[in-house]
């Protein structure tokens, strides 16, 4: 019975065999590795992944698809909203310290998924995701570009990222109205030690009025926090490198009254 894609789940199923092969090659799954696929759908990526791995864990929200997936003897099926999945508990259940995570993420909730995984990055070896190309452009952006923003800073603090593959709309059924791409995300071995909530707040304030000089936005916030370091406020938010945001957040995190 043919599965009809559901808009509420953001379902666009990958059908282009050449693109599928290129994605699997980029992931490079090896026998015995513990890989978790988010949103396996009709198993376009699932089947070639499991053929290389021997077994695979998948997270699927759609009940009808989950029923189908459970008939596959090599799949461990987690029927759940990925935003509710405890990846630390999943790693523990699977008996490993780190998980490799992959998938064609629903574009309507891709950022929440990325931040959900960011909070559990300690159990992630690497991530390979297909996303809207526009989102990946923001993830890998350099300072002083229009794509550089909050998402850039928060993710580059914890991951080294690379846009590894362009995927056109005609590779899907139904075709999305946007271009897609595949990103590789590898957690940094020695990220800046800081309070993630402080960094998130700092970056949110900085980019709240991105056309304005930071003196008019971030300046007062840093003053209220008792920041004693040096920070050039005569720039716009997009002109500040990730490392400088990290240094400011790390300094505030180390302060006795950091909150």
UniProtKB/TrEMBL annotation:
Methyltransferase in keyword set: yes
Membrane-spanning parts: none
Short name of one Pfam family: RrnaAD
Alphabetical list of Gene3D superfamilies matching this protein: Ribosomal RNA adenine dimethylase-like, domain 2 (1.10.8.100), Vaccinia Virus protein VP39 (3.40.50.150)
InterPro entries, per the entry: KsgA/Erm, rRNA_Ade_diMease-like_C, rRNA_Ade_methylase_Trfase_N, rRNA_adenine_dimethylase, SAM-dependent_MTases_sf
Subcellular location: Cytoplasm
One annotated GO molecular function: 16S rRNA (adenine(1518)-N(6)/adenine(1519)-N(6))-dimethyltransferase activity
Residues annotated to bind S-adenosyl-L-methionine: 12, 14, 39, 60, 81, 104
Catalytic activity: adenosine(1518)/adenosine(1519) in 16S rRNA + 4 S-adenosyl-L-methionine = N(6)-dimethyladenosine(1518)/N(6)-dimethyladenosine(1519) in 16S rRNA + 4 S-adenosyl-L-homocysteine + 4 H(+)
Taxonomic superkingdom: Bacteria
EC number: 2.1.1.182
Function of the protein: Specifically dimethylates two adjacent adenosines (A1518 and A1519) in the loop of a conserved hairpin near the 3'-end of 16S rRNA in the 30S particle. May play a critical role in biogenesis of 30S subunits.
Family to which this protein belongs: Belongs to the class I-like SAM-binding methyltransferase superfamily. rRNA adenine N(6)-methyltransferase family. RsmA subfamily.
Name this protein carries in UniProt: Ribosomal RNA small subunit methyltransferase A
Organism ancestry: Bacteria, Pseudomonadati, Pseudomonadota, Betaproteobacteria, Burkholderiales
């Amino acid at each position: 019975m043919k599965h009809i894609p559901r808009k509420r789940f953001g379902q666009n199923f990958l059908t282009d065999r050449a693109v599928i092969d290129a994605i699997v090659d980029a992931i490079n799954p090896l026998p015995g590795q513990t890989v978790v696929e988010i949103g396996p759908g009709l198993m376009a990526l699932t089947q070639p992944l499991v053929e290389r791995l021997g077994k695979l864990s998948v997270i699927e929200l759609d009940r009808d698809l989950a029923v189908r997936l459970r008939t596959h003897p090599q799949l461990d099926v987690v029927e759940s909203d990925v935003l509710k999945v405890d990846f630390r508990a999943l790693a523990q259940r699977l008996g490993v310290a780190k998980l490799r995570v992959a998938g064609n993420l629903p574009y309507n909730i891709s950022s929440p998924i990325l931040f959900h995984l960011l909070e559990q990055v300690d159990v992630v070896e690497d991530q390979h995701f297909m996303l809207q190309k526009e989102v990946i452009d923001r993830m890998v952006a350099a300072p002083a570009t229009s794509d550089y923003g909050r998402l850039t800073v928060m993710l580059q603090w914890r991951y080294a990222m690379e846009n590894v593959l362009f995927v056109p709309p005609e590779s899907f059924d139904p075709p999305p109205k946007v271009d897609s791409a595949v990103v590789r995300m590898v957690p940094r071995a020695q990220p800046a030690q800081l309070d993630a909530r402080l960094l998130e707040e700092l970056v949110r304030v900085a980019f709240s009025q991105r056309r304005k000089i930071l003196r008019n936005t971030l300046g007062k916030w840093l003053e209220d926090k008792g920041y004693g370091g040096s920070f050039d406020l005569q720039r716009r938010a997009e002109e500040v490198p990730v490392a400088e945001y990290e240094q400011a957040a790390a300094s505030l995190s180390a302060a006795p009254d950091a909150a």
